[in-house]
Amino acid sequence: MHTRELRCVRSILFTLILLCTATAAGAAEVTAPQDANAIDAASPFIAKANKEWEAAIQTGDADALSRPYHEDGVFVAPDGNAVRGRAAIRAMYVGRAASKARIVAATIQSEGRVAAGPDEVYEWGSGWMFVQAADGTRSKRGGRYLTIWQRQPDGTWLITRNLAL
Questions:
Q1: Which pTM does this prediction carry?
Q2: Residue 10: which region, alpha, beta or left (left: phi > 0; alpha: psi -120 to 50)?
Q3: Tell me: the pLDDT tens digits for 12-71?
Q4: Distance from C-alpha of 15 to C-alpha of 120, rounded to nearest angstrom
Q5: CB burial of residue 15 (10 Å; 0-12, 13-18, 19+)
Q6: Which helix (H) or strand (E) holds 78?
Q7: Residue 103 bridge partners (DSSP)
Q8: What is the dihedral angle through the alpha carbons of 13, 19, 24, 25, rounded to the nearest 10 degrees?
Q9: Distances (CA, A) of 132 to 88, 106, 165
Q10: Alpha-carbon distance 60 to 72, whole Å?
């Protein structure tokens, strides 16, 4: 992706985060009961996926990493490249697990949620991986994210968009 396009994608993502943060700040005053119910309904699915991510990213378990995504879900990497579909997201994680770098620890911190309606919840926070390269050097990778969760007809919640910033 060209530098200009990358700046544009980052600007759009930053604007989305600001909108979500602003909405969340006022949500306590104006949240409709159905929207609060959406957050309550989605929260166990979000917590489970986040906890499983911390373990699965270390072991390279691509099935566990891709399981919370909708069949047509999209993962947008920090460089703006989009991976479309659960199968492609799984393949992305398989490729990452095959690298010579080993993830020795990982943490994810969900920092906020806002309902965009009764069946859609936006979640944001930060995720970090502590990586050990083949030569033994360690580094910290990761950053902020914005995830869109949608309620499915069976009542489960899946990721439709995940933006790593």
A1: 0.80
A2: alpha
A3: 444 445 444 444 444 443 445 668 899 999 999 999 999 999 999 999 999 999 999 999
A4: 19
A5: exposed
A6: none
A7: 131
A8: 120
A9: 25, 12, 22
A10: 22
